[in-house]
Design a protein that fits this description.
It is built from five helices and no strands. It is mainly α. α2 crosses α5 and α4 packs across α5. The chain is globular, with a radius of gyration of 16 Å.
Length: about 100
C-alpha cells in the first residue's frame, strides 16, 4: 500500500464524518425539541439540571451526546431529527452555545 495515498484518503473521511454530524442538525425544529423535552424529560428533572455549574454539555456536540445518552437510557427511540431538535432547544435556551441549526 502506498502510504502517500493512504494519507490522502484519511482527511477525506474526516471531512465527511464532520459534515455528517453538522448537517444533521440543519433539520432541527427547536419547538419540537421543547415539546419532546417537556413531554419526556421533565418527569425526572426540571430546568435546574441545565443551570448547574457542573454542566456536562459545554458545546453543541456534547449537548447532543447527552441527549443521545438519555434517549437511549430511557428507550425513547427518537430519530436523528428529534435528537437534533432537543439538542438545539437545549443549546439555545439553557446552554447559550452556538449550534449548526441556530
Amino acid at each position: 500500500m502506498d502510504y502517500l495515498n493512504a494519507y490522502r484518503i484519511r482527511p477525506a473521511w474526516l471531512v465527511i464524518a464532520a459534515l455528517a454530524t453538522v448537517s444533521s442538525a440543519f433539520g432541527a425544529d427547536p419547538d419540537r425539541g421543547r415539546m419532546l423535552l417537556e413531554t419526556h424529560c421533565v418527569s425526572c428533572h426540571d430546568s435546574r439540571v441545565y443551570k448547574r455549574d457542573s454542566k456536562l454539555g459545554t458545546n453543541y456536540e456534547e449537548i447532543r451526546k447527552q441527549v443521545v445518552r438519555w434517549e437511549t437510557n430511557t428507550s425513547r427511540k427518537w430519530n436523528d431529527s428529534d435528537i437534533d431538535s432537543v439538542a438545539t432547544h437545549l443549546a439555545r435556551l439553557y446552554y447559550k452555545v452556538p449550534c449548526p441549526a441556530c
